[in-house]
Amino acid sequence: MTVLDGARERRVRTGGVELCVAELGDPHQPTVVLVHGYPDSKEVWSEVAARLADTFHVVLYDVRGHGRSTAPSPLRGGFTLEKLTDDFLAVADAVSPDRPVHLVGHDWGSVQSWEFVTVKRTEGRIASFTSMSGPSLDHFGHWIDKRLKRPTPRRVGQLLGQGAKSWYVYLLHTPVLPELAWRGPLGKRWPGILERVEKVPGGGYPTASLPSDAAHGAWLYRDNVRPRLRRPREDAYAHVPVQLITPLGDAFLSERLYDDLELWAPRLTRRTLPAKHWVPRTRPDRLADWITEFVTATEDGRSGTGANGKHADRFGGQLVLVTGAGNGIGRATAFAFAEAGARVVAVDRDAEAAARTAELSRLIGAPAAWAETVDVSDEQAMEKLAARVAAEYGVVDVLVNNAGIGLSGSFFDTTPEDWKKVLDVNLWGVIHGCRLFGRQMAERGQGGHIVNTASAAAFQPSRALPAYGTSKAAVLMLSECLRAELADQGIGVTAICPGLVNTNITATARFAGVDAAEEKRRQQRTARLYGARNYPPEKVADAVLEAVVHNRAVVPVTPEARGAHLMSRFAPRVLRRLARVKPPL
Ligand SMILES: NC(=O)c1ccc[n+]([C@@H]2O[C@H](COP(=O)([O-])OP(=O)(O)OC[C@H]3O[C@@H](n4cnc5c(N)ncnc54)[C@H](O)[C@@H]3O)[C@@H](O)[C@H]2O)c1
User: What is the pTM of this model?
Assistant: First the structure.
């Protein structure tokens, strides 16, 4: 069974073949045509199509020689880009005769779609194009040319890098061998390879036609690759807005291939995903969101998606939840994600502060932002929050467990109540967040990222911070363990470890073992110290986004935190000495 069950099917005749075309959703809505790659059939889009069908008229077809479409005879010369363009136009005319369609292509589906959007005869028939893992052969040809004609060490490195990733293209050009391999052992092992190497859940959909699809599809390469790479067209400009989605872990294509794409596609929106090649199967939620956003923007006459802050390519449209978002580092982090076009859930126990963060996030650029009032140490409240967020906003893509409180004082001055308070918020708050939202991420099976705010105090002992330091060291170790556990599921985990950051934490931090007046005095003194240090929370927020983009494990922020981190590894004795120094309070 596939998710395409229930789709309306028709056959479209064109150029001596019969194409199997499936339709979902309301035909009065804008039409989105999904074109599959090699070696796939239209079923590769099942999960994406099901999600898009609520909003759009979704059309999928088996490319000639694949799935339930017939193959041309003879095969040689039957798969040229000209013929594939004829097929696309025949499908578009059948399913949407009066309105241009929105085109989406993956792998070879994208390679051929580049042809569709750069030739004259399709002008007015295509409204937009979303491309993933499949470059234009013309652009690729020019990319190679440029590097051969003006080789610099960097360019040669890029050529060699892509050359190594293209090993299968050379093999597919050999006669008979690919056909034998696909009809033999490779065909049998393919679902296992997809599951193990590409992390496609269950290896994908039934692949009864795989051996013949893959054998036919070899002609896509043979009919097109060499001629186009040798003589790329000079006028291969896209006449529609293009959204480029680049999976950063693609084993077959280097991201460098798209470096100069703006020259060929002037109305370009870039998106990146920490995923492997088969994104229609591994990241259907994210693709459906980005396609919806892009198609809707194009229909509304906005060719871009609005967000253009740093990392908008990565976080645009993603759902990000930040705890302790009412002030300081949490608020700055919420703003940084908002600027990158993410949808933001601002969680804080201070309702007014959370509401203000959400309101400002919308002004800054978040397409949506919500405030939630929750005490992160309250297990039941967190459970309700997780259920509400999943039901109303969706599964969180990035979770930032940032809420925390300060507590200073010697070990013997720290009462069991003090310990409980600081561990409840700083450690249990993080545990609840990871457990509840992390499980939703893992169950969705489409990756994500968890950021936990620890502190330099996690690796820098101090006689003044036994409880706080212990809570943060626990957060650091929790993050490392969870990172190991979730790595296989494409979920990254980061511990952020700031040093002294100029926030309001100094005004609320507790000082154990002193009366109220003395506590006030110490709070003011610490606030002056942090003010004089003046390290802005915005810089921590930048580090958070960078850490997610690069999937970093432990990120000390501020020079003193980086210094302490180095010393904890290479000169722990010095740190231990420093830990004994009495604080000047
Ligand atoms: N400021 C620093 O120098 C520094 C250094 C290292 C680590 N940190 C850590 O960074 C995080 C953020 O600190 P900050 O400096 O921005 O502090 P802050 O006091 O400016 O902001 C913390 C926010 O968290 C909220 N909060 C506190 N307890 C909560 C709870 N139980 N439930 C929900 N919300 C709660 C507060 O209402 C506040 O809005 C904390 O985990 C802190 O330990 C801060």
Answer: 0.83
